Amino acid sequence: MSAFVGKYADELIKTAKYIATPGKGILAADESTGTIGKRLASINVENIESNRQALRELLFTSPNALSYLSGVILFEETLYQKTSGGKPFVDVLIENSVIPGIKVDKGTVEIAGTNSETTTQGFDSLGARCQQYYKAGARFAKWRAVLRIGPTEPSELAIQQNAQGLARYAIICQENGLVPIVEPEVLTDGDHDIKKCAAVTEKVLAAVYKALNDHHVLLEGTLLKPNMVTPGSDSPKVTPEVIAEYTVAALRRTVPPAVPGIVFLSGGQSEEEATLNLNAMNKLEVVKPWTLSFSFGRALQQSTIKKWAGKKDNVPAAQQAFLARCKANSAATLGKYAGGNADAAASESLYVKGYKY
Amino acid sequence: MAVSFTIRAGTYADELVKTAKTIASPGRGILAMDESNATCGKRLASIGLENTEANRQAYRTLLVTAPGLGQYISGAILFEETLYQSTTDGKKMVDVLVAQNIMPGIKVDKGLVPLAGSNDESWCQGLDGLASRCAAYYQQGARFAKWRTVVSIPNGPSALAVKEAAWGLARYAAIAQDNGLVPIVEPEILLDGDHGIERTFEVAQKVWAEVFFYMAENNVMYEGILLKPSMVTPGAECKEKATPEQVAEYTLKLLHRRIPPAVPGIMFLSGGQSEVEATLNLNAMNQRPNPWHVSFSYARALQNTCLKTWGGRPENVKAAQDTLLVRAKANSLAQLGKYTGEGESAEAKEGMYVKNYSY
């Protein structure tokens, strides 16, 4: 068959379209236990379950913030957690018209014979796990593939391996009722210029969509989570307008209109940078048949976590900070962000060399 | 968006983009008049004319001098002989076209031959010396090129045939762009067969996935290409016919799933449909805005009635040109989604499917 038309087809299409609603975006709150530990450590908070629960409760109960979100990606532990009042997080989200999603990959490992390139693990029992997650209320999933730019990277092997992995993950999700977010992240690490990033991003996306098509993935029931096209982290910065032009050009060359939404990752960009870049893309006057929105982790939570610092008394202020970033990014998806209401925390770069989730 | 063309762009990048955009302008499409001498001979024979250069010249003169043709036609694909010919008035064919605001294009493939190791399928030749030929055609005034390969559903198609079709197109496209010509990319999925529309849809999705992947590998710049697909229809011998709305639904779905928005224009081939069918189907596809210009590149579906009206007689030239303009205008309206189908002749509704048709 030419595309997957299983029992969930209509629901997948509907879910993907809803997540891609202009004016809304995704909160990526799916940090693994290890990674969230780093966040908590940065504010001197112990990495125990109650603290992880407290942070996520802070985010999900922020007054009015959820109205700017169409989805939240969760880590497995969080999918089954509750508020301090005993309400399942999943219910909190659904009641506020936010679709719960779930990270399903099991991290990256090196591909033997390459120069530290990686592939993503997580296929064992993936179908069964997706079914469980669907029962628990999840309706979309996420799997992060990683590529890097170097003198001979990304290699053909790394591109093919990651593209095939994303395609296999995507069809298994669709068989089990979850909209797959397809994430081929090309890392910013390096001293390459924006043109190099553009060329690599286009090559990777072409391979990804070829693989998705070969695996009969229903494109109308997927979302794309790509990197923005930027200069390397060790290269001089460029304006949001330049990033917007290269990024949108790359997407126009590779992403078929059947895909309803493109939700960018923020990589190591500061909260404000990420918002400004997204805004510039939405202001570009060129045909963009998919919604351009956000799926931000650090770029939505950074100031919020700092303001919270683990203290209950700080929760309202932290929630205000979170609301501000949600509002700003919502405006950016409409090309209406006025900018400039960033404090020091919001402008702080979140780039970490060799960043590992 | 000049900055983006530094990726995958050659010397002619800006011009290619401009040419493709001009051909893909609203309300206009392409007149395919690139029949090889042998094929043109069949056309002339059908109206009792001998296949001589003079007759081919007379017929092509009739076409290119139709007054006001440029209002509906943005490009004309020529055969090599015609590119270097003059009209019966002694003006260069290319000059007449340019004066009519019509861009001259050139067929550059060297036809289909049997594909060894396949299931009786074909592949398209023409890569040898293609670069210098394109350069020469550019000098002569051509600004776009066309390469037609085919895929046959009754014969599989085999993975080999699909791969070869896609790879050949990708190589041709890269070479054409390198030499200043906008490549029209044409993988025709033949109408022959008794398969239903779902099967055509399945094959078309596979073919286009391959075509785009290989074009990406060959660093083809999509803002400077045009596509010439076949519409998604049932096979000619299928018992179930499809309405224009069904053809539009399947074809648009195909386009949405396979064609990146960077491609400026999709110019459908008519492949044996009647003149009116081809117009109705195009019209159905333009009832809502599309991310690319969706238009026509018709040969028989523009020329059939015109050729018959001419019948080889000088006194019929004006009447023949009028019928050409009627069809051109109808398709122009269809491109805008505004075709109503009033006043069409029986002739125009006659199917032109020929089993095992070869150019």
Automatic annotation (TrEMBL), chain A:
<dbReference type="InterPro" id="IPR013785">
    <property type="entry name" value="Aldolase_TIM"/>
</dbReference>
<keyword id="KW-0324">Glycolysis</keyword>
<dbReference type="GO" id="GO:0006096">
    <property type="term" value="P:glycolytic process"/>
</dbReference>
<dbReference type="GO" id="GO:0005737">
    <property type="term" value="C:cytoplasm"/>
</dbReference>
<protein>
    <recommendedName>
        <fullName>Fructose-bisphosphate aldolase</fullName>
        <ecNumber>4.1.2.13</ecNumber>
    </recommendedName>
</protein>
<comment type="pathway">
    <text>Carbohydrate degradation; glycolysis; D-glyceraldehyde 3-phosphate and glycerone phosphate from D-glucose: step 4/4.</text>
</comment>
<keyword id="KW-0963">Cytoplasm</keyword>
<keyword id="KW-0456">Lyase</keyword>
<keyword id="KW-0704">Schiff base</keyword>
<dbReference type="InterPro" id="IPR029768">
    <property type="entry name" value="Aldolase_I_AS"/>
</dbReference>
<comment type="similarity">
    <text>Belongs to the class I fructose-bisphosphate aldolase family.</text>
</comment>
<dbReference type="InterPro" id="IPR000741">
    <property type="entry name" value="FBA_I"/>
</dbReference>
<dbReference type="Pfam" id="PF00274">
    <property type="entry name" value="Glycolytic"/>
</dbReference>
<dbReference type="GO" id="GO:0004332">
    <property type="term" value="F:fructose-bisphosphate aldolase activity"/>
</dbReference>
From TrEMBL, chain B:
<keyword id="KW-0704">Schiff base</keyword>
<comment type="similarity">
    <text>Belongs to the class I fructose-bisphosphate aldolase family.</text>
</comment>
<dbReference type="GO" id="GO:0004332">
    <property type="term" value="F:fructose-bisphosphate aldolase activity"/>
</dbReference>
<keyword id="KW-0934">Plastid</keyword>
<dbReference type="GO" id="GO:0006096">
    <property type="term" value="P:glycolytic process"/>
</dbReference>
<comment type="pathway">
    <text>Carbohydrate degradation; glycolysis; D-glyceraldehyde 3-phosphate and glycerone phosphate from D-glucose: step 4/4.</text>
</comment>
<keyword id="KW-0456">Lyase</keyword>
<dbReference type="Pfam" id="PF00274">
    <property type="entry name" value="Glycolytic"/>
</dbReference>
<protein>
    <recommendedName>
        <fullName>Fructose-bisphosphate aldolase</fullName>
        <ecNumber>4.1.2.13</ecNumber>
    </recommendedName>
</protein>
<dbReference type="GO" id="GO:0009507">
    <property type="term" value="C:chloroplast"/>
</dbReference>
<dbReference type="InterPro" id="IPR029768">
    <property type="entry name" value="Aldolase_I_AS"/>
</dbReference>
<dbReference type="InterPro" id="IPR013785">
    <property type="entry name" value="Aldolase_TIM"/>
</dbReference>
<keyword id="KW-0150">Chloroplast</keyword>
<dbReference type="InterPro" id="IPR000741">
    <property type="entry name" value="FBA_I"/>
</dbReference>
<keyword id="KW-0324">Glycolysis</keyword>
